[in-house]
Amino acid sequence: MAALNLNRIRRRLKGRVQEVFVQRERRIFIRVAEEDLRETVKTLIRLDGFNHLATITGVDIGPAIELIYHIIYKDAVVSLKVQVPKESPVLPTITDLIPGAVFYEREIQDLLGVKFEGNSSSSLFILPDGWPDGVHPLRKEWTLGRISKKVRRLW
Amino acid sequence: MVKAIDIPFGPQHPALEEPINFTFEVEEERVVDVKIRLGYIHRGIEKLAENRTYHQNVYLVERICGICSFAHTTCYTQAVEELLGVDIPERAKYIRTIFCEMERIQNHYLWLGFTAKAMGFETLFMYTWRDREAMLEVLEMISGKRVNYGMNTIGGVRRDITGKMVERMEERLNYLEERANYYKKVCTKERSILKRTVGVGMLEPSDALNLCAVGPTLRASGIPQDVRADEPYAAYGEIPFRVVTYDGCDVASRILVRIDEIIESVKMIRRALDGMPQGPIRVKVPKNVPKGEAVSLVEAPRGEDLHYLRSDGSDRPARLKVRAPTLANLPSLRKMLKGVNIADIPIVIAGIDPCLACMERVILVDTKSKKGQAWSGEELWRYANEWYRES
Amino acid sequence: MVILMAMEDELLESLKKKPVTLRFPYERARPEDRMQAKVTWEIEKCIGCNLCVKVCPSNAIKLIGRGRKAEIRYHVGRCLFCGECVDVCPTKAIQTTKEFELAFTKPEEMILEFRR
Question: Of 1.10.645.10, 3.20.20.70, 3.30.430.20, 3.40.50.2000, which CATH number belongs to B45-359?
Fold first, then answer.
């Protein structure tokens, strides 16, 4: 089942993908460039068996932040990877394509500092009020000790 | 034209079991818009998990939620086992399946009581919670604990089900099935329940799909999506079962979906107990996990639960992402709340079975800084003064 | 068919029954055989191997000293009662008890020490 899906994805995405691999049955990972994100998502949600977007994972990988869009199909889970540079982490929103992504994007904005054009809000969603600017707790440079030093004066 | 006003709802509110803040924009009695603010019970579990070993994290992940603790540990251990490349024994798979279903039964009984309370039907609340004890006793008998069972471990399960326990389980299962049938009768006939739930909190199937709803909320809109059927984990591939759907799209359908799932779960546990093979229940696993990444899916009582795990080859995870079902259902909840009466807000919120502790995980808990978090009266007073001066 | 009180017979029947709850301090439920609560050490058996410290998910155990002279400091307030230390102990020096009513008046009392 997965193989069929993979060929279809390859054909539909044409030259956009940087890397596609099947980790095991039902698990497909795709890597695309930042600017191709919206087009790829648009193509992926039109494929047969599309169900929903499970979540967006953000991982700090040193110089960049990797966002992984987990898209659930009837017969596979496609994880779409995109990297944004840490200095200017801005991505276009996908909430107009998948309205259910709104809270996942807000969560990432708070915790990893990635801005989503079209879905950014200056108010905090998950972090407490009065949280210092620029402290994004899931980034690796913010260790537990550093965060608590910065935040101790808040409470 | 009536001017819309904002009504804050929560974080502390009698209709909410856990803290969350809604701001309702209200015109007369109708809700027009909803704003949601989270973060009141954020405990920093994702960050904390990066600082602990894989084995210690089993217990941390278990404490994401008190009610669906087994679903979270199953999801996490599955991801670690996938990275390690170990195959757990057949008997362990069956025990995991049985526990997942028992947890579903106790969760749905709890939810039924909670919903009954949200609509002011306290009698039903008391009765369902009494019956839930029957399931909790079985869970305690097998695992030694009532909620956070400590059953799952990387490479299998920690405790076995003996023949004597099976007898006691079957007796309790008969009782629970009989009660579930009775509650189904009550919920389809009782006038006060029907008046409060039929046609309330509508979620059309197309909206449910667009807003990425999961679990019983989605199945009550008539879409048969269930991780157990789509991607059989543990022993679900060997146990036949029916995916329960109703197409009422309202709170009444959500009640019926869950009651039917209780009945279905009882049948599944019986089948699993019959087909359970003999053998070992756990295998030994190495401490360090090879480099790689894994996505693991589990159908928790509230819906699809996703764990993403990335390893860098050490004994601690590089990243653990947990997406609990309630966060996936929040956009649909916002949709459902638009257009309802103020008086129906609690029942609609209860309808998705919100578990906020599950949903919010990140930020920090540092034992050293805890001291600074407690406020003395003077500090509070100073803070309040400063706050008012600024605004 | 819609009826006014669907739980009528159930409620009438309940009038004849006693409450299902226990009057706790006077009546107690019998603990299950597999129940795990506070753990204790038989310190003579301890060889100071440090395994329980490493396996503990909540860092509740501390080893003071080394080898056969080691002493144990056990933080009851942090303990999750998971029983991993009991399973891992090579000399069976750790046992679990059924003592679960663990309220203390002072924080110091939550730290138990097992000396030789």
Answer: 1.10.645.10
